[in-house]
Amino acid sequence: MSATHPAFDQIRSALIKESYTSGTCQIDMEQCGLYYQDRTADDASLFYLNLASATDDDLSHLISSCDAAPFGRGTETVMDATYRKAHKLDVSQFGMAFDLASTPILNKISQDLVDMKVSVKRAVRAERYKLNVYDKGGFFKAHQDTPRAENMFGSLVIVFPTPHEGGTLILRDEGVEWSFDAAQLLASVTSETPNVAYVAFYSDLEHEVMPVVSGSRVTLTYNLYFDNMATVVAPVFTSQGKDHAIKDGLQQLLADTTFLPNGGLLGFTLSHSYPLRHDAPVGYTVSELLPYLKGSDALIYSACRELGLEVQLNVHYTADNGGTYLSTTPIDDDDEGEYSDDDVFIECAFGWRDQDDGQPRKVVDAGVLWVADRPTNNGVKSRFMIYGNQHSITFAYGIVCLIINFRRSSIDVGEGGAMETEDEE
To answer: pTM for this structure?
Structure first.
């Protein structure tokens, strides 16, 4: 459906995607302390190493006590040095004095990736995952991180100040690429006390570790979760920021009686991809996804909720015949292509369309007016990546759309632009 409105540009300009946040952080010398089991000793004694002052021999000893780091390929955990060459310790195999909570890193993540200055505050919980060591020649080719729970939204990598060159982390998203060179960042620090470099990013981002040229790159990784989801408060919009721009743009659409005078469906392709599950414990069903929206996606939903607009999430598909489909559930990859058949029933936003004899039929061109980026690829299968940091068959990353049911009969603009919503039975 083709139409436009000046408010579209205002809304789109506020939907700039923030994919990662990074920087350096000064810490005490003691926080670089690492204890691990010495596998070279007969009595399996603990060995202490301070990563801020570690020598090449110290790091070689650490590597000798590590396991080779595997990765996930579909349903399998794979050891393949042509795809990943690294060493790792699981959380049960080491102890560290590093205290993430005593640093400003989690607050930075909340500000840049979670709340984005909207007053809906969601607590962030970081869970230690692994200690990884990439020595000379170590690398990890492109992959996406495997979600381990419904509320996991991202990954955090802490890089300790061990001398090394190379090992740049490359982040990619929809044709855009960023580089995080921790070695260069740490080399530029002039303070006498040690610093760590850090980068946090959404789990659906493709990323890879480039080869280490010299030295050893030692990282502590965390999984990032939304915590205490039930305690989320209602949004209170201020007069500044992206949240206000989105809300104001939607208010302009509602105030303009010439825009969709009989109502209709407005569509937003969400900026981020989300793990959609197929009858498994990890990932989301589409209906469960709203509390876990990330970044600018959460801003759209918050604005709609503040204005009393009815919204629904759908997975987008384009069939072989060119038809457009919006489904409230993911279509299994095993059924690829079958949804182009006339007998396949797909539920559209806010009910069924094109019903014959009272039976729901497939939706061809649902008549959605796209405010932001009409999808061009299929939902789940277009975002699936076979390579991850852990094997998984329970989910695939999906392209999700937020559809607004733009009904003028139930929502009006009151005096001063305030919204008035009629009660419904």
So the answer is: 0.74
